[in-house]
Amino acid sequence: MNLKLLELFCCIVEEGSISGAARRNYLSQPSATKSIRYLEEEYGALLFNREKGSISLTEVGKTLYPHAKAIIHEYHNSREAVRYKNEKVQSQLKVGASFTLGEYFLPSVISDYIGNTQLEDAGTVQLFIENTPNILEKLDDKEIDVAFVEGEVVNNNLIKEAIAYDEVILIVGSTHPWSTVPHVLTNELKNEKLIAREKNSGTRKIIAEHLEKKGVLKDIFSYMELNTTQAIKSAVRSGLGYGFASYYSVKQEIDNGLLIKVPIADLTISRPLWCVKKPLNFEKPAIKIFSRMVKDSFVHN
Hints:
There is one protein chain. Helices cover 44% and strands 21% of the residues. It is of the alpha/beta class. It folds into three domains: 3-85, Winged helix-like DNA-binding domain superfamily/Winged helix DNA-binding domain (Arc Repressor Mutant, subunit A, Orthogonal Bundle), CATH 1.10.10.10; 90-164 and 272-299, D-Maltodextrin-Binding Protein, domain 2 (3-Layer(aba) Sandwich); 165-270, D-Maltodextrin-Binding Protein, domain 2. The strands form two sheets. Strands 3, 4, 5, 6, 7, 8, 9, 10 and 11 form a nine-stranded mixed sheet that branches. Strand 7 (194-197), helix 8 and strand 8 form a beta-alpha-beta unit. Helix 1 (3-15) crosses helix 3 (29-43), helix 1 (3-15) crosses helix 4 and helix 6 crosses helix 11 (285-299). It is elongated and about 75 Å long.
């Protein structure tokens, strides 16, 4: 089997046309068409429906596509693994992360990874930050090598490992009435202004679940809704109300007295932080090294 034929097949699927794939691979269209004919002969079946200048995958083509992608991915990973054994050289590592981990935790780990003198060549790291569902979709499609998320992982095709636990805490500004109290009760939350994340936020969902169990969610209304943790922190610091945030996202402000953590006597909100991988026969050595550094970093924080 010629791997180039599988790569061309996948390229045609992704480009949506033979001509587009031919341009991308610096081939003439007749040459690309001929190559696909060879591949169809290899499998003994048509891979594309060709009608009125357009193409679409046959059922056989739809079956082949994920296998072809996996073969190509595994081949390149095997080359990288061998290159690492021979030359101790790492290739680019593509890391995906949900917002809390990507914005507040991973940058320092990436810096340590690249500057690690034990790695003769750590290569480069590309960080993708999106919400958890989008990051896990990228991982499943093999657009990234490893993911670090704090949301729910329901895809059974992925391997997840809890590497730490994060507490979602209540925060107020230094001038807020709660800034000097030893704790509050969930029933008191309805009496003050809540600065909340947007409705589809993973952090907001886990808070809502816990408050609903306490029977107080229906009485708590958002005074303001903001779509980033940074915006929540700024609004809370300005004295506009109280908010909830990941401990890791506000640790620096708490240490510097800019935000105050207020314990809730009758409620603790904790969630796992996941390292998620796609099962591979040949895993980049960089994935194992970087994942271990992330896990170790939580131990020391």
